[in-house]
Design a protein that fits this description.
This protein is mainly alpha-helical. Among the domains are: 132 residues, Serine Threonine Protein Phosphatase 5, Tetratricopeptide repeat; 124 residues, no CATH class. It is 60% helix and 5% strand. It contains 18 helices and 5 strands. A 5-stranded mixed sheet has the order 2-1-3-5-4, sandwiched between helices. The longest helix has 19 residues.
């Protein structure tokens, strides 16, 4: 057997050592998770990012920030998969990650923030949020939660503070701002608007507070109605009479009978809410008017549609435009208004192409050729 000359071996040894060093070089962690408010609404991307953060945590020593990023990426993916809701299996998985954070850094900002999301919207959740805010008030992860807390508490000063911070620090992506403008355009100043989650609630609140748009509009985050104090205050602000009802769709049902203020639902409201009002939802733009039919609904829809921005890059908020658009198209066709029908059909094709809904519109007969 030929032997490697000692001189050659000496020359190769540094290269071997260098190769081994390079093999041991740490792989950089994935990009920080992007929240739905900042454009992280692509479910495939969110699920891929969650898998990347899981692998990164598996292959690295315990680190609370890395674990929190894993938690938040899993949260984004699971909420996106279920229209803003967390199933029991989702909560169980997130709970396991939260326990890892607690083991790594008990009492840390990361632990309190993870517990906030797990316990939301309970009082315990907001106690954890307060603790996280005291530990690191400058952290960007606090922006949306603290705005929710200001809504829960009915604290006007905190609403101004945190909505301003979200504006200043880019907490809401421009397409969601445009979608929020369309929602506010579609409801009257004296209305009551029920919203579903962060993507439709927070951009609307930021715009309302920072631009003083529709200042008398009462925006109700339906998730926060689980809190008795928020529910009681909302009932009172709505000018409703009688005892405060429980949360859920029954709250809005009772409200319709107890206030003179018009009630509206965001198009993105949870399906269980929409199903509870058969025959009472009337598309008037980027929102439903709730109640008995009104001869003015069709004109309001046409007027608002013409004025709305209708961004095609706002994820699920863009897809929501297809419903009022389809209703308006049916109205145009029903009165043989071919010019407006043709223009609207072209617009719906553009929205559908951007949101992956073209085949759905053909299946439903909205697009015919």
């Amino acid at each position: 057997m030929a032997r490697i000359p000692i001189i050659l071996l000496a020359a190769l040894l540094p290269l071997v050592c260098l190769s081994q060093t390079e093999d041991r070089k740490e792989i950089p962690p994935p990009a920080p998770p992007v929240s739905n408010l900042q454009g992280g609404w692509d479910n495939n991307l969110a699920n891929s990012q969650a898998a990347q953060w899981r692998d990164a945590n598996t292959n690295a020593p315990p680190d609370a920030l890395m674990q929190l990023n894993w938690f938040l990426s899993e949260l984004n993916a699971r909420i996106g998969n279920n229209n803003g809701e967390l199933k029991s299996t989702d909560k169980a998985q997130l709970g396991r990650i939260a326990e890892e954070i607690k083991t790594t850094a008990p009492g840390s900002f990361e632990q309190h923030l993870a517990d906030y999301y797990l316990e939301f919207p309970s009082k315990a959740a907001f106690a954890d949020l307060d603790a996280a805010n005291k530990l690191a008030p400058e952290r960007a992860e606090l922006l949306a939660p603290m705005l929710s807390k200001a809504m829960l508490d009915g604290d006007a000063a905190e609403l101004r503070k945190w909505s301003a911070e979200m504006d200043r620090r880019g907490g809401v992506t421009p397409p969601l701002k445009a979608a929020a403008a369309d929602v506010l355009l579609s409801v009257p100043d004296n209305g009551i608007l029920f919203t579903n989650g962060d993507m439709d609630t927070q951009p609307a609140v930021v715009r309302q507070v920072q631009q003083q748009e529709k200042p008398d509009l009462l925006i109700v985050d339906r998730r926060l109605l689980a809190d008795p104090s928020y529910r009681e205050r909302t009932w009172r602000q709505a000018g409703a009479t009688g005892p405060t009802p429980s949360d859920g769709p029954v709250f809005a049902k009772k409200l319709l009978l107890s206030t003179s203020r018009p009630v509206y639902f965001a198009l993105s409201l949870d399906r269980s809410w929409l199903d509870a009002f058969p025959g009472q939802l009337h598309a008037v733009g980027a929102a439903f008017r709730v109640g008995a039919p009104d001869v003015e609904d069709a004109a309001a829809l046409a007027r608002h549609w013409a004025a709305m921005k209708k961004p095609v890059n706002a994820g699920p908020m863009s897809r929501n435009y297809l419903l009022p658009g389809a209703i308006l198209l049916r109205q145009f066709r029903g009165r043989n208004d071919e010019a407006n029908a043709s223009r609207l059909e072209h617009e719906l094709r553009q929205i559908a192409a951007a949101t992956g809904a073209t085949q759905d519109l053909y299946s439903l007969g909205i697009l015919q050729h």
